[in-house]
Structure to design on (367 residues):
C-alpha cells in the first residue's frame, strides 16, 4: 500500500511538471513570495510601509529623476537586521532639491518645486554635518533618486509601495486559507465520520453561513472586530471554511467505509487516530485544489475591502487601497497608477487559479 501511495504521488508530480502554465504559475508565486519577504532589501524606499514622500513630487511619471539632500540627524540613526524585513523606523529627512552650491561655511540649495518661481532657497551650515568637507557631503548626503514607476498622489515611490503591497495579498491568502482549513477540515471530518445529530448540526451551521453573501459577511465581521490588518485576515478566513467542510464531509463519508478503516477499528485504534492517520490523508486531494481557489478568492476579497476602506489601513500599502487612492487618475491622464496594482492582482489571482486547475488534473486518478 505504501508503494502504491508513493507511485501515485510521483505520477501526480509528473503530471504537474508536464503542465507548462501550472509550473510557470507555481514559480511566479514562489518568486513573488521571496520578493515580498525580502522587499525592504530590494525596494528603493526602505522606510516602514514605504511611506516616505514629498508632495512636491506627487504623481510624477515613470522614470522621473530628482536630486535629494539628506539633512543631518540630531541623533545617530540605528539600523539592525530587523529593518531588512520590517523597514527602517529611523530614517534621515530627505528633501528634493533642484540645485545647490557651497560657500565657505554653508551649503545653499533650492527646494524642488513644480513652479520654479515658488521654490524656496535655503542655506545650511556645514558645521551641522558630521563631516564638513563639501566632497564628503556630496558623497554621503546628496543623491540622485530615480523613480522607476514614478510616484503616487503623495509623492511616494510607487514601485516600493507596489512591492510592499504584495505582502498583504500573499499574507491574506496564507492566513485565510490556513484558518479555513483548520475550521473546515475539523468540522467536515467530524460530520462525515460520526454522522447522525453531529452531522445534522454541523451541516445546519454550514448551510446557514453559506446562505449569507460572502462580502456582506466579511464586512459584518470586520466591523465587529474593528478595522485593521489582522482583523481582515480573520474575517476572510472565517468565511471561507464552509466549502472545505462540505467537501471534506463528502470525502470522509466515502473513505470511512473502506476496508483499511474497518481493519483499524478492529485493531482497537481510537477514532482520533483513525481520522488523522487513515481517513484525512486520503481526503486531501480535493482540499488542496479548493485551497488554491480560496487563496485567489481571499486576495480579491481583501482588495475589495481595502478599496472600500475596510481593509488594511493607512499607511500600510495594499493593492486594493492603491487602486482606491489613484482610480481618479484614470480620467486625469495617468491611468497606470490604478492599472499597475490591478494588473499585479490579476496576475497573482490567475497564477493561483492555474495552479488549482493543474493540481485538479494531476490529482485525478482517472486520467
Amino acid at each position: 500500500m505504501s508503494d502504491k501511495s508513493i507511485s501515485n504521488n510521483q505520477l501526480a508530480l509528473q503530471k504537474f511538471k508536464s503542465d507548462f502554465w501550472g509550473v510557470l504559475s507555481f514559480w511566479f508565486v514562489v518568486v513573488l513570495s521571496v520578493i515580498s519577504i525580502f522587499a525592504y532589501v530590494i525596494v528603493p524606499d526602505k522606510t516602514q510601509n514605504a511611506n516616505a514622500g514629498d508632495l512636491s513630487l506627487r504623481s510624477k511619471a515613470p522614470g522621473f529623476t530628482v536630486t535629494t539632500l539628506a539633512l543631518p540627524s540630531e541623533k545617530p540613526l540605528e539600523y539592525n537586521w530587523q529593518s531588512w524585513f520590517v523597514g527602517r523606523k529611523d530614517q534621515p529627512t530627505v528633501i528634493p532639491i533642484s540645485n545647490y552650491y557651497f560657500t565657505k561655511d554653508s551649503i545653499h540649495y533650492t527646494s524642488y518645486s513644480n513652479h520654479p518661481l515658488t521654490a524656496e532657497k535655503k542655506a545650511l551650515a556645514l558645521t551641522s554635518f558630521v563631516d564638513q568637507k563639501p566632497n564628503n557631503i556630496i558623497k554621503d548626503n546628496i543623491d540622485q533618486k530615480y523613480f522607476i514607476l514614478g510616484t503616487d498622489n503623495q509623492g511616494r515611490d510607487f514601485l516600493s509601495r507596489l512591492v510592499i503591497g504584495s505582502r498583504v495579498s500573499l499574507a491574506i491568502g496564507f492566513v485565510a486559507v490556513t484558518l479555513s482549513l483548520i475550521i473546515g477540515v475539523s468540522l467536515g471530518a467530524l460530520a462525515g465520520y460520526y454522522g447522525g445529530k453531529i452531522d445534522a448540526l454541523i451541516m445546519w451551521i454550514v448551510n446557514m453561513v453559506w446562505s449569507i453573501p460572502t462580502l456582506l459577511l466579511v464586512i459584518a465581521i470586520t466591523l465587529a472586530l474593528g478595522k485593521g490588518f489582522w482583523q481582515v485576515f480573520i474575517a476572510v478566513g472565517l468565511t471561507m471554511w464552509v466549502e472545505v467542510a462540505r467537501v471534506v464531509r463528502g470525502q470522509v463519508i466515502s473513505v470511512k467505509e473502506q476496508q483499511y478503516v474497518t481493519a483499524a477499528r478492529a485493531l482497537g485504534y481510537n477514532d482520533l487516530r483513525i481520522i488523522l492517520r487513515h481517513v484525512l490523508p486520503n481526503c486531501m486531494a480535493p482540499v488542496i485544489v479548493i485551497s488554491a481557489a480560496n487563496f485567489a478568492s481571499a486576495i480579491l476579497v481583501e482588495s475589495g475591502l481595502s478599496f472600500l476602506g475596510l481593509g488594511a489601513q493607512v499607511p500600510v500599502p495594499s493593492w486594493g487601497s492603491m487602486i482606491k487612492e489613484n482610480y481618479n487618475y484614470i480620467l486625469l491622464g495617468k491611468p497606470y497608477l490604478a492599472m499597475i496594482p490591478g494588473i499585479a492582482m490579476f496576475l497573482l489571482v490567475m497564477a493561483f487559479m492555474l495552479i488549482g486547475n493543474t493540481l485538479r488534473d494531476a490529482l485525478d486518478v482517472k486520467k
About this structure: The first strand starts at residue 64 and ends at 70. Confidence is low (pLDDT under 50) at residues 1-5. The chain is about 60% helix and 10% strand. The chain has two domains: 2-35+159-362, 52-156.
